[in-house]
Amino acid sequence: MAPTRWGIVSAGKISNDFKVALDTLSEDEHQVVAVAARSLERAEQFAKTHSIPSAYGSYAELAAQKDIDVVYIGATHPQHASVTTMMLRAGMPVLCEKPKSVSSREVRQMTSLAEKNNLFFMEAIWSRFFPVYEKVREILDSGELGEVKMVTASFGINFDSVQRFRDRSLTEGSLVEVGIYPIQFTTMAFGGEEPQDVTATGQLIDTGVDEAATIVLKYSNNRMAVLTCSMSTTLSQEAHVYGTKTSFKIPNFWCPTEVITPDRSHSFPLPRPEKPLNYFNSTGLRFEAMEVRRCLQDGLSESPLLTHAMSLQIARILDRARRAVGVHRSRAYCKMM
Question: Is 14's pLDDT higher than 70?
Answer without folding.
Answer: yes
